[in-house]
From TrEMBL, chain A:
Membrane topology: Multi-pass membrane protein
Purpose: Part of the binding-protein-dependent transport system for D-xylose. Probably responsible for the translocation of the substrate across the membrane.
Name of the protein in question: Xylose transport system permease protein XylH
Phylogenetic classification of the source organism: Bacteria, Bacillati, Actinomycetota, Actinomycetes, Kitasatosporales
Predominant place of localization: membrane
Keywords, in A-Z order: Cell inner membrane, Cell membrane, Membrane, Sugar transport, Transmembrane, Transmembrane helix, Transport
Highest taxon in the source lineage: Bacteria
InterPro entries on file: ABC_transp_permease
Coiled coil: none
Membrane-spanning ranges: 32-53, 60-80, 111-133, 139-157, 194-213, 278-311, 323-342
A Pfam family per the record: BPD_transp_2
TrEMBL record, chain B:
Xref: InterPro entries: AAA+_ATPase, ABC_carbohydrate_import_ATPase, ABC_transporter-like_ATP-bd, ABC_transporter-like_CS, P-loop_NTPase
Transmembrane annotation, as ranges: none
Tagged with keyword Nucleotide-binding: yes
Residue intervals of the ABC transporter domain: 20-260
UniProt xrefs under SMART domains: AAA
Protein name: Sugar ABC transporter ATP-binding protein
UniProt superkingdom: Bacteria
PROSITE patterns associated with the record: ABC_TRANSPORTER_1, ABC_TRANSPORTER_2
Amino acid sequence: MSTTAPAPGKPVADERLLKTSPLKKFLGRPELGSVVGALAVFLFFAIVADSFLRTTSLATVLYAASTIGIMAVPVALLMIGGEFDLSAGVMVTTSALISSMFSYQMTANVWVGVGVSLLATLAIGVFNGVMLIRTDPPSFIITLGTFLMLTGANLGFTKLISDTVSTKSISDMEGFSSAKDVFASTITIGDVDFKITIVWWLAMIAVATWILLRTRAGNWIFAVGGGEHAARAVGVPVGKTKIGLYMGVAFGAWVSGQHLLFNYDVVQSGEGVGNELIYIIAAVIGGCLITGGYGSAVGAAVGALIFGMTSKGIVYAEWNPDWFKFFLGAMLLLATLLNAWVRKRAEATK
Amino acid sequence: MTTEAVAKEETAPADRTPLVELDAVSKYYGNIRALEGVSLEVHAGEISCVLGDNGAGKSTLIKIIAGLHQHDAGTLRIEGEETRLSSPREALDRGIATVYQDLAVVPLMPVWRNFFLGSEPTKGTGPFKRMDVDLMRRTTHAELLRMGIDLRDVDQPIGTLSGGERQCVAIARAVYFGAKVLVLDEPTAALGVKQSGVVLKYVAAARDAGLGVVLITHNPHHAYLVGNRFVLLKRGAMSGSHARDEITLDELTRQMAGGSELDDLRHELEQAPEPDLRGDGGAP
């Protein structure tokens, strides 16, 4: 095929391409809305709350952000892949309960429980994914079912086994301190204590970004979310990609769950309900398109950071914490509008 | 109708095995006859056109060739070997690439990601196995340039390209990945005259590169410009099959437009009383 087109001007490429300024490139990034929002929130609380800028406060903010971010990052990937997971919040509790109860009942090393919990949580993720691709209903309904089942099972099994709504303490068991080092320790830099969840969070951002932008799987995630039929027609393994995404969320739930367990020693079986929406909101603030096919892991992480700053900032400003939800809702609306506007601009720039 | 044309034996020389050959292929969805007794040959370096109105069975025919559906009767031969395609992947692996009307592109994704979607080249091993992004960008740019599309930026979402450009990207992608047979589903349907011309040029270019092309269309003018053989479908059955030298554009258009039915319609229209367009009850 040697047909050369009547290209206007020189036959060499790029000459017609106007120089894209770095600013314009930045405006086209999905993270933009969240970064601007994060800066605004940071400045706001830096002004109204005196104690907000102390390093200890920042460490607290980062800790709050990381516990949300560990889940928001895989949830964002799932949303880019075009699906939701409403069971993500209670799955964290489920994962912690399984770990704790298995170790306690079997009087095994806690690491055995941690391992069993990993397998069980991943299995829940696989269940979500397989149910979704084998049947027709939207993931909203499927995972709503999983959400209700897990909520019930968390309480039911815990009451059945330990007669209360919380698990027995496992702090005197073998392996507890090493597991606590991994999931719930504190790293002191200077005289500031940072929680290890921040490290987990950063690691997940890095891995998720790598997968999304530089691997075949990442290409497939964008494709199944942005155009499932097209993806299937060119041979993308749509089913496997989606199951993988649900397993990613399950992995995040496992990390969060183990943190809960080893940080507090006992697990309240009713926890986690409602958190799934927080993860989704963080992802949306971070620029993930609710219909799939667009977004970034970094954006979701920044979304989680906004959460952390807002929830703690209100405390430092000594306001009534009831205002937290109001702030959150306003933030969500603003971020959505800003993202829609930015995306339109980005697509219109030809 | 020209039923005798259906019965006519294919006159293709026996020394050449068609790349794809359908022989009296039928497809039923429950009790619905979607396609019955359709025969089609696709040779290397030729364009076989499938013409038909809406609901004639064109889409079903494509789906059988593309491996999305299996035929219920008749035989499908690929390079002389009788076969039954179980998936689009298998069709692709055997060199049959289909460019659908929706083009199978993901609008929000950059052009280069779309170009390699499903067949991304990788480098590195283990956890560092990654897409060869540089190669992908360069190849996309070069391949599109060969098609005459001087892309401003391979990073732009493919949804921002014009319909004709997107069509050409889809064709370029199929050619690059070594398709032997290119199935095009109404490539000019949504395009203006000029863009249609651009697309037809690349269809012809693909033919000249030695590919066998199946061009599905309901535009006999476009078909006659590039086609070597023409198969007409009507209500799921084959209503005609002609080589290029056996039929004129006028005859093709007439058959396509409904043939004798069109004559009837014209007759009816001539007979009809002049409609009252003034709306004043026909008062003088």
